[in-house]
């Protein structure tokens, strides 16, 4: 990197142009074959995926034969449908449109609901749950249906409560930055509304064009802004929710400080519709940054990546908004599959880091970033680097990070894990898994495993482990599991950093939670929902 | 303000030199006379307070005759004491030192414990609770005993579990900034430890020299850094707690992202020892800012204060660390009582704002703040202003904010409320209360009420309403209550912004929480602590 390349130009992060709802790549997670991609990343367009889309999606009840319909639940009668129709618009089994509510967007999960309810108000939701609870009819709250773990579609005949029609912004106070909106407001709609007022929604993810604010809160979505704005547990100030018996819990505070009893709303953040339906959210929204920069650089060791991260936090401090890690394998994959010229001219390094800054003063941000990068170059903490000089360059740099999940599917399939690991050991999982494949003779030219790829939100300690394969192979699975889960468990990591549990991970939660924690969780579920009607068969086994 | 005064020098916020544990001022809250001060503010040294300190502190059981000892609880036997002595060091009724654990630091609350336990480990706490629960012996967890609502001292013969001896820093990862420490670590000790590593504890308050990290979490302390670093609900990553039956709940995650079930730790944040004892905390600690600035300026209307706040957030954005509001009445009181020259030369304005910035680059921060203030002066949003040029000046500017609670007690007494109100109406409470006093002929020369003072953490929507009086008067109380509580209730404000409920506010919580919320809270309390042994008679009436 010569100083001449350090000229910085105003750019915009291109996140808003990425739409995840195209054709997904054939992936595997936890030994199971399925179509997915991270919600905030560009999906693949492989032939395999295209073929799979044409098929009828397999019923979740068939994919998970160990999940039996709970006989405690009543079966829907025509009287029930008539009653629900008196509350709000409904979509019944006769409608062709009902399948869209039964099937998730990845086309991995398919339920068997015979009724979709479209409440228009919190009172409607209350009436719905009161009746459902009294009749022991199971329900599934559904937001934008953009989840990755099958949490928002039914498995058997659970009634879908679609939040699509509850989509009003209730209030916004430009002085405090506090937004109150219905749960069914689309994230992008909320963010666009805020942009007009000079504010920003403190959460960003690729599914923003479809996902609901209520669904974001119900799943505790992480996304791209967590490093800067923190988690929803800190930014959400209030929640309005309807409890399983129809009681409306109005905890829709618009206060930053309110120490008057247990912080009930926190229980609903990340509860995935298992203890109630979130109907509205109050959230504090920061000022929208006026300046953004993107840089990409090569680093030779993970120790130096950590050193870079420490120094980025110290020297860029308040303006650092992304710190993304990519290993060389991931970058070679992107180059090979896309045929694009790699952004750095120098020798290949083991790691690459993408940094983004967002601040209130462009000149200051430029100066901070330039000084930071020059110092890192001078003492050889980083080996090479480039700074985006315009929006096109910034988008190109981001594409080397965001293109990874897509290209990993290029060879036929990919085993994929989305995990949290304490930062010091973040990359060791990739190395250990790779060593195992070599030990078992499964990695290399002509072998099942193409390579082992690691990348992710370094700033959030969130690693994506991807294993691109030429074909799915039982031997590969046996090397991966339970090794990966046990490895994570030993380091007190998380088997689900940001995607939640849903159906996909309810069998694996014990790798990240102790029996005491699970027992307290089960007792809370039972406390709030003694009849178990809320989003059954998911989250945690009861 | 001339440009010449805009020269900025490196300064340090003087917060760390303020110690609240001196002689407190005689105050009233909720119509009751007591000694207190805000935990992060300089206390008063009035003759009244000195006199009151010499007296034996009245038993809380006498001050609150409606609180009766719960007959479900067993009485301590010599066998119990022997058993507890086999677990950990104890302080028995014979010890002169026991009174320090019975009485709060304000000398307002006094309990009647006959046993203090000093566990040295989580296992000790577990043994203690297991036995206490089986015997139905009530307990009170006690941290630094620096609370303002009587939450950490017993009322009757509850056994005190002092966390003083659990004071180890368990780990710190300089890469992620994540600290794990025992609950009994003193906040200042933790912050000093972090300072050596270039990090900062994301919470600051005047009691930092005595309060415990575990107590901070148990009471969801707000303090001085909330505007910048957010609440503990966002920064605390994990909690280790012992449940009332002795079960150890190990939710001591060191992960920023972990979406595997209900976020149990959140229930303990702000639970005031009513559902378990927090024994350790994991928290993410930002890089310590290297630069700080302080400015004070006068503003003519509350609309312009709000405008200033919006622009401060936009233009100072990422470096803004305090935005404190003081009305002119408060500043006149400080000037009158202290005899100090007011910091601004110009005409008096109705409001004054103190701004603090903290950032990673002094020059940039200076430039941002200077540009911001010049623009506000030019378009007359602010009327006058001054920028601290060194640490002494900064400390002087802070003293005009921090000196308010002390001087309010100058005339004989003060009625005091610490509340959250939606920002738009933050100051209206002061105006409405003042109007009522005028209407009732109670305000002015020779009348009971000296004036009505408003100030507080504007950035957090947290108002301190102070009514300095020449003498306590039933008529004054009748004007204030229930008016103030009803006024707050109408605006969905909070009757306790940051101090919690304890004994002091358990009677008033319904002004900030609906019956449904309270009912869910009660059911949760009963769920976790069916025998009710944890910190009884406080928080929420069961």
From TrEMBL, chains A, B:
- For the keyword Zinc, the answer is yes
Residues annotated as domain FAD-binding PCMH-type: 109-288
- In the Enzyme Commission scheme, what number(s) does this protein have? 1.1.99.39
Needed cofactors, names only, are:
FAD
Q: Does the keyword Ribonucleoprotein apply?
A: no
Q: Where in the cell is it found?
A: Mitochondrion
Where do the record's region annotations for Disordered lie? 36-55
User: Would you identify the family this protein belongs to, as annotated?
Assistant: Belongs to the FAD-binding oxidoreductase/transferase type 4 family.
Give the protein's biological function: Catalyzes the oxidation of D-2-hydroxyglutarate (D-2-HG) to alpha-ketoglutarate. Also catalyzes the oxidation of other D-2-hydroxyacids, such as D-malate (D-MAL) and D-lactate (D-LAC). Exhibits high activities towards D-2-HG and D-MAL but a very weak activity towards D-LAC.
Keywords (alphabetical) are: FAD, Flavoprotein, Metal-binding, Mitochondrion, Oxidoreductase, Transit peptide, Zinc
| Entry-linked Pfam families | FAD-oxidase_C, FAD_binding_4
Matching InterPro entries:
FAD-bd_oxidored_4_C, FAD-bd_PCMH, FAD-bd_PCMH-like_sf, FAD-bd_PCMH_sub1, FAD-bd_PCMH_sub2, FAD-linked_Oxase-like_C, FAD-oxidored/transferase_4, Oxid_FAD_bind_N
The molecule here is called D-2-hydroxyglutarate dehydrogenase, mitochondrial
What is its EC class?
Answer: oxidoreductase
For this protein, what reaction is catalysed? (R)-lactate + 2 Fe(III)-[cytochrome c] = 2 Fe(II)-[cytochrome c] + pyruvate + 2 H(+); (R)-malate + A = oxaloacetate + AH2
PROSITE patterns listed in its UniProt record? FAD_PCMH (PS51387)
Q: The organism sits in which domain of life?
A: Eukaryota
Q: What is its main location?
A: mitochondrion
- List GO molecular-function terms, semicolon-separated: (R)-2-hydroxyglutarate dehydrogenase activity; D-lactate dehydrogenase (cytochrome) activity; FAD binding; metal ion binding
